[in-house]
Amino acid sequence: FYAVSLPPITIQDYLIRIMTYSPVPNNVLLSIVVYIERIVARTREHPEFQSFRICALSIHRLVITAITISSKYHCDNVYTNARFAKVGGLTMSHLRDLENQLLILLDFDLRV
């Protein structure tokens, strides 16, 4: 999840970009807050996940990946991975890899 350098866009502007080019319903946005809270709790409880930290180098990728996964789980009509990857500034293969990592961090539990 970690970028090599700080992204040139603030997380607020990044969210605005996502909502401009691939708007998602409010329940998707609310679910990513729950997902992030679960990740924080899980990294505290399980030593094998303690190397993952949410910081300025990881938050952008975490957000776009969580939105992608949450959209697939909660919505009937979903943008493609290509769309989310383009809006998020990632390649499709990188987004796919991040999805797998996030699902493992969430223990594949996407219910809210």
Automatic annotation (TrEMBL):
Transmembrane segment boundaries: none
Cellular component terms per the entry's GO annotation: cyclin-dependent protein kinase holoenzyme complex; nucleus
Any one GO molecular function term: protein kinase binding
Top-level lineage group: Eukaryota
Descriptive protein name: Cyclin-domain-containing protein
Organism: Sistotremastrum suecicum HHB10207 ss-3
